[in-house]
Design brief:
This protein is mainly α. Helix content is 62%, strand content 0%.
């Protein structure tokens, strides 16, 4: 699992949900062979890993209540235990919905976690600035992430008591952040000015943003948004 976290060979869909089903584990063969096998498994199961509920359609009031209930239940449980320990039964009990309802919307708890990241993305309105210059998009993205974390700092601190280090929750968050940054750069025409692949630039931006947010909040340095901006500009000025 440590190998998967640091290679980040797949950034758009959750690979951990079927990792235990693989016949060959990372420690049983070379990294190259393992990556090839894992990549093949991912391609075969791509359709299975998408959310059951079509979020591109207009969401009814009933569906919204259900989705919100499971979203809030996940956050509540994460404040009391690690993501690995959470079960579908607990999510259903917490939300007061039967298992059948859960599986009408999600394949499993990993699917629900993907929906949680999607919901957070909606709160910071990522779709509004994907056509802007990459640098401008970057600072808007950072500002909204900063504001979102600041507004929910107490909840985040509770969650991190049980979900820290190389926990799957934080790994998923890093993957999600990287995916968003890749999409911003992919849709930006200014990516042509870079002399190296834009994917590398996007990952560098993502890692830098996470570094500043971690310094500001997780390490409790009390860094203001203005200070955080200055740090971000300094670390990215070579680009």
């Amino acid at each position: 699992m440590f190998f998967l976290l640091h290679m980040q060979i797949f950034r758009h869909l959750p690979i951990y949900k079927f990792y235990d089903k693989l016949e060959c584990k990372a420690y049983q063969e070379s990294n190259k062979d393992f990556c090839l096998i894992l990549d093949k498994k991912i391609n075969l199961q791509r359709e299975e890993l998408s959310l059951k509920y079509d979020l591109t359609k207009k969401i009814t009031k009933g569906a919204r209540r259900t989705l919100d209930a499971f979203f809030n239940s996940m956050l509540e449980l994460l404040s009391n235990k690690s993501f690995e320990e959470i079960t579908v039964n607990e999510l259903c009990q917490q939300s007061n919905y039967p298992r059948a309802t859960f599986y009408n919307y999600f394949d499993d708890k990993y699917d629900l976690l993907n929906y949680c990241w999607y919901s957070l993305a909606q709160q910071i309105h990522l779709e509004e600035y994907r056509d802007l210059d990459s640098e401008e998009s970057l600072y808007i993205f950072f500002d909204r992430m900063y504001d979102l974390i600041a507004a929910h700092q107490d909840t985040i601190q509770h969650i991190l008591k049980f979900n820290s280090g190389e926990n799957l929750l934080l790994s998923y968050f890093r993957i999600y952040m990287n995916t968003q940054m890749q999409e911003i750069f992919h849709q930006c025409s200014c990516r042509e000015r870079y002399k190296i692949p834009y994917e590398i630039i996007a990952e560098h931006y993502c890692n830098t943003i996470l570094l500043i947010l971690e310094w500001s909040f997780l390490k409790k340095n009390g860094c203001s948004k203005v200070q955080a901006h200055e740090y971000l500009k300094y670390l990215l000025k070579s680009l």
